[in-house]
Design a protein that fits this description.
Elements (H helix, E strand, L loop, with lengths): L3 E5 L11 H10 L3 E8 L5 E3 L20 H5 L19 H10 L5 E6 L9 H10 L6 E6 L2 H10 L5 E5 L8 E2 L2 E2 L2 E4 L1 H6 L2 H4 L5 E2 L5 H10 L3 E4 L2 H11 L3
Helix pairs in contact: 4-5, 8-9
């Protein structure tokens, strides 16, 4: 099995994370999939951003949950990375889906629901509503560190593919409530410590795999996917060390 290359927050190593330029670059270099994070604005809009606050990746301050979409859209989401991206704005999840559709992207999109600190009441319903609103050309996977979020999501859409994110040994689950999970998304350090029975139990999409030696380890083990800040580099390494 050929390991899939999933671009972490777009192409985080080369572009401002979780922005349209990062996602477009991932498509351009041929990434098999794209990973992104979603949170809710004050007015209940699905906004693509990793942190619960806008402080690190924009020129603004405050909680995403305390800012309306119109306020979030006024923020510069690129200059912190490079002044050349000063016109970059935070995208909504719908805008990302529409952009990838225009690019005729047929890979996978991993939507992480960032509810490990704030529950964001209703976020699962809004995600389901968006997904059901039209036929998207890409495959969708939903992940979270929050088991309750995944359970609520699967209660509303049992046909969705849901994966559990975790960091340490002993945090693995195959079900949330009565709903089976489709994969595990463990941290790379978990992979290095896990026993063979654990490794063979569920499909693995490992994060965040940026070092070449870690990429090679994952390719030798034929894990299902790696989630990396450097998809272009990972594709080159895969070409050298993993056959079809």
């Amino acid at each position: 099995m050929r390991t899939q290359i999933i671009a972490h927050r777009g192409s985080k190593g080369a572009h401002p994370e979780n922005t349209l330029p990062a996602f477009l670059h991932a498509v351009k270099v041929g990434a098999d999939g794209i990973e992104l994070d979603v949170q809710l604005s004050k007015d209940g809009q699905l906004v693509v951003i990793h942190d619960e606050t806008v402080d690190r990746t924009t020129n603004g301050k405050g909680l995403v949950s305390q800012l309306a979409l119109s306020e979030l859209k006024r923020l510069d989401a690129g200059s912190w990375f490079n002044p050349g991206y000063s016109d970059t704005r935070l995208p909504t999840l719908k805008e990302v889906f529409e952009t990838l559709t225009k690019e005729v992207f047929h890979g996978s999109v991993n939507v992480e629901l960032k509810t490990d600190r704030y529950a964001y009441e209703g976020i699962e319903e809004k995600v389901v509503e968006l997904v059901r609103s039209e036929e998207w050309p890409f495959d969708l996977v939903f992940s979270s560190f929050n088991e309750a979020t995944l359970q609520r999501l699967l209660e509303k859409a049992p046909d969705f593919s849901a994966a559990l994110l975790f960091r340490r040994l002993g945090e693995e689950k195959t079900h949330v409530g009565r709903y089976p999970l489709s994969a595990w998304h463990p941290k790379i350090t978990w992979l290095k410590r896990a026993s063979v029975p654990r490794l063979n139990k569920m499909p693995l999409r490992v994060w965040t795999v940026n070092k070449e030696r870690e990429m090679k380890q994952c390719f030798r083990m034929s894990v299902e996917a790696i989630i990396t800040d450097f998809p272009e580099k990972a594709l080159e390494v895969r070409e050298k060390y993993q056959m079809d």
